[in-house]
Amino acid sequence: MSRPEHIAPPEFFYNDEEAGKYNSNTRIQSIQAEMTERAIELLDPEGPSLLLDIGCGSGISTSIAESYGHVAVGMDISPSMLSVALESQEVEGDMLLADMGNGVPFRAGTFDGVISISAIQWLLNADKTCNVPQRRLNRFFETLYSSMRRGGRAVMQYYPESDRSQQMILDTAKKCGFAGGMVVDHPESKRQKKFYLILQAGGMRTLNTSEMSIEDEKVVAKKRKLKRKHDMSTREYIVHKKDLNRKRGRLSVPKDSKYSGRRRKAAF
């Protein structure tokens, strides 16, 4: 199957028809939701944060970030996708129509963290004579670094086309001031393999992606989920999980009622 970035520029590829798929296809919604949750786990924010969602598309990732208690600002190049986000998703933060290849248009130190799902591979797309991949990468990472507070992290899931393109992205990010590396989930599976670029904009937080395996990450994520569960009442946790499953497009989620989370009487 052809890669979308080989078919047309993103503002044309993600037209009304393609945006509609994101709003109606439960499989797409489920995959996007799963990758967003993984990105937030790797981001490891220190409490409620102001996040930038680059390539927010139809708003699935933005709304999930907000469901975790963060304030999120979405940014995308496709008017059709942003229209779906504003109409169909319960997104509370602002949405910005912008091309990430032209830079991140926010003042210095604005964001505590950044997430991006299935977007930054488009920076390597030379679909116009004015779109020089290396120039677009430089502009993107320079302005991204500036827009983040020192010590803030960015986690960007994407699909590298080759080892060369993957190295090009990482090298450019480091030249622009970031520290970081790659985490690859399910490296043995061609179908489930996912790449996450993890960057840190200076600061004192420890970031060591090279020594953290997927097994270690699963343990950390499990402990974090348990902590989040213990911070909620039983009813709050149940309602939270139902909301996440609805955002993933699952149709069999029970409706909320006054009995949700109520302890059952013992049967004799």
UniProtKB/TrEMBL annotation:
One GO cellular-component annotation of the UniProt record comes to: cytoplasm
Occurrences of domain 18S rRNA (guanine(1575)-N(7))-methyltransferase Bud23 C-terminal (ranges)? 208-265
Q: Which residues form the Methyltransferase type domain?
A: 52-154
Q: Does the keyword Transferase apply?
A: yes
Keywords in alphabetical order, please: Cytoplasm, Methyltransferase, Nucleus, S-adenosyl-L-methionine, Transferase
Task: Kindly give the SUPFAM superfamilies that the UniProt entry links to this protein.
Answer: S-adenosyl-L-methionine-dependent methyltransferases
Report the superkingdom from the record.
Eukaryota
User: According to the UniProt record, where is the region Disordered?
Assistant: 230-268
The cross-references to InterPro entries, in alphabetical order and at most eight, read: Bud23-like, Bud23_C, Methyltransf_11, SAM-dependent_MTases_sf
Location of this chain's protein in the cell: Cytoplasm; Nucleus
Gene3D superfamilies of this UniProt entry? Vaccinia Virus protein VP39
Which family is this protein grouped under?
Answer: Belongs to the class I-like SAM-binding methyltransferase superfamily. BUD23/WBSCR22 family.
PANTHER family in alphabetical order: 18S RRNA (GUANINE-N(7))-METHYLTRANSFERASE-RELATED, METHYLTRANSFERASE-RELATED
The entry's protein name is rRNA (Guanine-N7-)-methyltransferase Bud23
Source species, please?
A: Schizosaccharomyces osmophilus
Recall the taxonomic lineage recorded for the source organism: Eukaryota, Fungi, Dikarya, Ascomycota, Taphrinomycotina
